[in-house]
Amino acid sequence: MDELTQRITLPSGFSFDRAAAAAHVMEPPHTRGVISSRGFEEGTKFTPRSKPADVALSFNTASSPP
């Protein structure tokens, strides 16, 4: 690229260098080493556990023990 296409000046007077903008990496310290997840679309797949046939599953909503 020549000098005209490397440095861009907008009508407002703002000027920037394309190579400097392309080389700029924004990585705040608190995000270093952070791994994002796409939820159910990736990761380890868990097989559903089978429920025992002889055990009744319930949710105790009583305010005091019986």
Helix/sheet category:
alpha+beta
- Please give the count of helices: 2
Taking pLDDT < 50 over at least 5 consecutive residues as the criterion, the unreliable ranges are none
| Alpha carbon gyration radius | 29 Å
The pLDDT mean sits at: 76
Estimate the helix proportion, in percent. Answer: 10-25%
| Beta-strand residue fraction | 5-15%
Query: What spatial form do the alpha-carbon principal axes imply?
Result: elongated
Profile the largest sheet: 2 strands, antiparallel
Count the strands? 2
Termini separation (Å)?
81 Å
Strand order in space, largest sheet? 1-2
Order of helices and strands: HEEH
What does this protein structure show overall?
The chain has 66 residues and is of the alpha+beta class. The protein has a domain at 1-26. The protein has helices spanning 3-6, 18-23, and strands at 7-9, 15-17.
List key phrases describing it:
single chain; alpha+beta; two-stranded antiparallel sheet; elongated
Helix-strand layout with pairing:
Elements: H1 3-6, E1 7-9, E2 15-17, H2 18-23
Antiparallel strand pairs: 1-2
